[in-house]
Write a structure and sequence with these properties.
83% of the residues lie in helices and 3% in strands. By secondary structure, it is mostly helical. The protein has one domain (30-196). Helix 2 (31-66) runs antiparallel to helix 3 and helix 3 (69-97) packs parallel to helix 5 (146-177). The longest helix is centred in the middle third of the chain and has 39 residues, at 105-143.
Length: 200
């Protein structure tokens, strides 16, 4: 093989490798940006939950002093319930703000997966809150108990909001996490060997 042919072959191999490396770099996910989006989305979610809690605390506190009957108990439960919501939102917001964005692919997927499971579990609890609220409301009417009636109505409202909140936040997280599915599709494990498909 002449020097000219060797040089040409060397240059072609280098060009192909550089093109492959550039394609790999451009197709690789920016994990810091993906985690920034994840944290930003969930921080916004905690802000929504905190806003709901604060508004319920204010309205509930005022409502307790200016109403009577079952409406007074409705406001009372709203205020009490949202002291817990405010604490959850505060701790969640603080934890997200202090979370590192420099995570590996496996850690990023784990963060999404863990939070999505929590949201689905919470959505199941929310259905239980609404069912309990309906039970209390019905029992309050039968027993002519203004307290049970007001508490039941409040639980239905709070459970309904939290169910909507958890489902929407789950769907938004799920949409973001699907950006990573394509990467895992290129990795195959047979039990004895692992193969990686390199897209061109």
């Amino acid at each position: 093989m002449t020097h000219y042919k060797r040089l040409t072959l060397f240059l072609l191999i280098n060009l192909l490798f550089m093109g492959w490396a550039t394609a790999q770099e451009s197709s690789a996910p920016d994990l810091v940006e993906i985690n920034r989006e994840r944290v930003g989305l969930n921080t916004g979610g905690m802000a929504v939950l905190g806003g709901w809690a604060v508004s319920n605390l204010l309205i509930g506190t005022v409502g307790m002093t200016r109403t009577g009957g079952s409406v007074r108990y409705f406001h009372q439960m709203n205020a009490a319930w949202n002291t817990v919501n405010l604490a959850i939102a505060g701790f969640g917001y603080y934890g997200l703000k202090n979370q590192s964005l420099d995570l590996t692919l496996a850690e990023t997927i784990s963060e999404y997966h863990t939070f999505e499971k929590i949201l689905l579990f919470n959505a199941g609890l929310d259905v239980g809150y609404m069912a309990l609220g309906a039970f209390l409301w019905e029992r309050g009417l039968r027993k002519e108990s203004e307290r049970l009636t007001g508490y039941g109505q409040s639980l239905i409202l709070q459970g309904g909001f939290l169910f909507s909140f958890d489902v929407v936040l789950y769907l938004l997280n799920r949409t973001q996490s699907e950006k990573l599915i394509g990467i895992l599709d290129n990795i195959h494990f047979s039990g004895t060997a692992m193969t990686v498909q390199i897209p061109f």
